[in-house]
Amino acid sequence: MCRIAGIISNSFSSTTLKEKVQAMCTSMCHGGPDDEGVIAHENANLVFGHRRLSIIDLSGAGHQPMADVNELALITFNGEIYNYRELKAELQGFGAVFQNQTDTEVILQAYLKWGIDCFSKFRGIFAFALFDIKKSTTYLVRDANGVKPLYYYHNDEVFAFASEIKAFIRAGVTHQHDERWPIWLLAFGNIPEPYTTLKNVFSLPKGSYLSYSLEKGPSINSYENVAHNHLLVDEREAQEGICHHLNNAVKRQLISDAPIGVFLSGGTDSSILTLLAAKQHNKPVKTISLFFNEKEYDESRYQTLVAGKLPKDDFHSHLTTSQDFDTHLPQIIGAMDMPTTDGINSWFISKYASETGFKAVLSGIGADELFGGYPSFERISYLRYARMFPKNIYWLTNLLQNNKLKRLLYLQQSNTAADYLFLRGLFTPVDIAKLLNTTEQQANDVLFKSFDFPIKKDYNKLDAAWFEKELYMQNQLLRDTDVMSMRHGLEVRVPFLDEDFQTYVNSITPAVRFKGPRPKQLLIDSFRDILPNDVWSRKKMGFSFPLQEWMGKNQQVTNEEHYKGTAAKQAINKFKQGKIHWSRAFALYQVQKHV
Predict the structure, then answer these.
(1) For the structural domain made of 2-222, what CATH number should be given?
(2) 243 part of the active site
(3) Strand pairing partners for 286?
């Protein structure tokens, strides 16, 4: 797990290219504290850079950028290939020669054997750049779930890539901000892919590869193999399959030569992973947890229940207070690669995990999206009926004080972005226009003409799963988890997003997959024999902080002097009165620091 960067250009000298890539790597040193490498291929006007967080093969043999034994290809790699041992054995059967024990070298040899077809063979979380020396072609490749970030920039003079947006600025590749990002943040709470805060810097789509040469320029193609399985209709069979495939996912994601643990929040998802890891791991499983003085948010009782079921637990629990939040808020905002309303919880838990000595952890991200754990899985039926109303009555909701009802304003637009914002949106276009001193039409154009999302018209739970996975999880949870964990030199693994596990879950008929009186009933029933009853039977909390209270007392967020314009000052006063959610105030706070 690392940070990568590179530049290809015939407009700069080799020395200049090295200096720029060195600057990119230095800006991301927190994500790769163990080693650094910068290498040039002068004939191709190419420089690759790498910052290493050592997880597999901790020796110097894992130094990157790395070439194969015959120097036919060069790679800079961020991530983990969980099935690298199986692929390595297969490649050795074909005569491939290996110099070390890393999964990085397996990628090189797999490419030399299978070409671009190898990309779909990898199971893991990864983003890498691979240069085929003979073809003089570079490939940027991103994992099927988009767990690891990869951004690129291209103009007539330069092609550049990096794991973080800040790297492009540090190297002077570009300083131009995309002026649309405040509108996206105030509506979505994040900057949706493929866009970033920088103009012409884009996120590589998940499950795809970009091929680039100086002669042909960039071209993006998908490599992901979409499985078309028959739907499983037997509930018991589905439960057995879920157990089997999640056990396999946990087993292979525990592969590590460095200390590894589990995020244990006390909820169903993290508890399942903790208990499965305890069965699979050949050492006592270590967990990391947070608890609060605010009893409404404190889950320490449930964390202890799970820890008590482990044969020999190494349980690390940390009290996190409002004073901690006030102290570290500037660092948290500084850690953000792009503005977001998420990531505070990930920053704290990653900080404590790193200080405890972990290099990698398992996280329960993905379970809610797969099994219907969010309120949106119920609310989406309201959307079906709301879409039946004449559009000319939606504007009336602007007269209402209820922020949730005001979301009906989004439905003046007939597209998928509007549907999602009805479910999860922060500010409406009318409010955004007032806050940013722009026009409602401009806000609408940015929100509803910038994205090419597939049309969703059934408004069933499968559609809700798509909204949560492809938009909320992709643009917010995964991105913020990666940024905040890597800020502390920590790798976060996500067994619920294992490719084979997801394929199996997606083969279960929705009538079984989302069946039951409780959210995620099928997942609960699949592991009822190991889960403490009090963990799964209580009301869902999620990994939540007391941020409504903490942020409401924070002198930086609530200081009116930090806000420009009447609308912004009125909004922050409503927040101080408890009339709007903290996420809206936090989005506005970040925007106001930049306008």
Answers:
(1) 3.60.20.10
(2) no
(3) 314
